[in-house]
Design goal:
Length: 143
């Protein structure tokens, strides 16, 4: 169960992030999760939003460069060692985490993390085989 994430390339200058937030707010698009990574010249804003197609459209209309990537949303036990257990399992199967970030809310006392794997399909299979809950795009919209 993959979730589509949109990525927006931003110049690293004052107000650029605010512009993205304004465009999405005006289009009534809710940001469910986000991550921002930067260099001295530009940043990559990664978002899980309530309506990907509409978000991509309105952002492109405003001149933003937008891409999409498949990621995996995973429920992780919200206790010491919860993340470690999942990372150890994936590492044992030579699956690398390219990046990850936390979801803004919790569900059933578990944290929700967004993962980008180098071997996404294999990671999903390993997680399912080990009874680790993967959250669908529809479920994310309702959290």
């Amino acid at each position: 169960m993959k979730v589509e994430q949109i990525s927006i390339f931003l110049e690293n200058r004052t107000g650029r992030l605010q512009e993205v937030a304004k465009v999405l707010a005006e289009a009534q698009i809710n940001i469910k999760a986000l991550s921002l990574a930067d260099t001295s010249d530009f940043g990559i804003l990664r978002l899980i939003v309530s309506d990907n197609d509409k978000a991509k459209q309105v952002l492109k209309e405003k001149g933003f460069t937008v891409g999409k990537t498949n990621v995996v949303a995973v429920e992780v036990e919200d206790k010491p060692g919860g993340l470690y257990a999942i990372l150890a399992l994936l590492s044992a199967h030579q699956v690398n985490v390219e990046y990850m970030y936390a979801f803004v809310q919790q569900t059933q006392k578990n944290a929700v993390l967004i993962f980008r794997f180098d071997k996404t399909d294999q990671a999903i299979q390993i997680l399912k085989q080990n009874n680790i809950k993967i959250i669908s795009a529809e479920e994310l919209k309702n959290i």
